Amino acid sequence: MVEIPGTGLPIIGHQLAWLAAEGVTDVVVSCGHLADVLQEWLARTPLPLRVTTVVEEEPLGRGGGLKYAARHLPCTDRPWYATNGDVWTRFPLREMAAFHEERGATATLALARPRIPWGVVETNEFGQVLDFIEAPPSPYPVNAGVYVFAPEFAALLPDVGDHERTTFPHLARERRLAGFPLPQGAYWRAIDTAKDLTEAARELAAQNAL
């Protein structure tokens, strides 16, 4: 398991700690490639909540894997959270759940505005350069990889395939898909590369120093 430098924990360890702090008591982890490595880490690590692992015998895609995992939820008649495995974030999940309930949504996804990795140039209508802005927040929200789902959502998922190409567009057309903007100052980062690991560790150290 690849750890966040300086923390002694892989991403899933931070995710489980966050979920437990937000009142989650049971987690189902969908595993595929190298499932035995993850299961071994879970078996030897003191965990703050109950964790069940399910292993896909063959690749089911993101939507199929989510549907397969949902079958193992301890309470299938209640709303449930889901999160991508490569996301490190902290924000009040209860606020997102309340947002989801208030809108009567079938699915709600968290929305982040990550910083653009380049400096941008501000110009006026005449093409004159006014300013240089280093790594500003994106003007467009992105799917932050954290969700709240109504109980009936699992039945809408494909057995095999990507729910973001099938289920989500269908719900959006029916106005049953909601987007919860992450609160101001909430931490969010997708961990895709070794550089992301290093930068996440640096950001965590900076937060702890405050």
From TrEMBL:
<keyword id="KW-0808">Transferase</keyword>
<dbReference type="Pfam" id="PF00483">
    <property type="entry name" value="NTP_transferase"/>
</dbReference>
<dbReference type="InterPro" id="IPR050486">
    <property type="entry name" value="Mannose-1P_guanyltransferase"/>
</dbReference>
<keyword id="KW-0548">Nucleotidyltransferase</keyword>
<protein>
    <submittedName>
        <fullName>Glucose-1-phosphate cytidylyltransferase</fullName>
        <ecNumber>2.7.7.33</ecNumber>
    </submittedName>
</protein>
<dbReference type="InterPro" id="IPR029044">
    <property type="entry name" value="Nucleotide-diphossugar_trans"/>
</dbReference>
<dbReference type="GO" id="GO:0047343">
    <property type="term" value="F:glucose-1-phosphate cytidylyltransferase activity"/>
</dbReference>
<dbReference type="InterPro" id="IPR005835">
    <property type="entry name" value="NTP_transferase_dom"/>
</dbReference>
<feature type="domain" description="Nucleotidyl transferase">
    <location>
        <begin position="8"/>
        <end position="205"/>
    </location>
</feature>
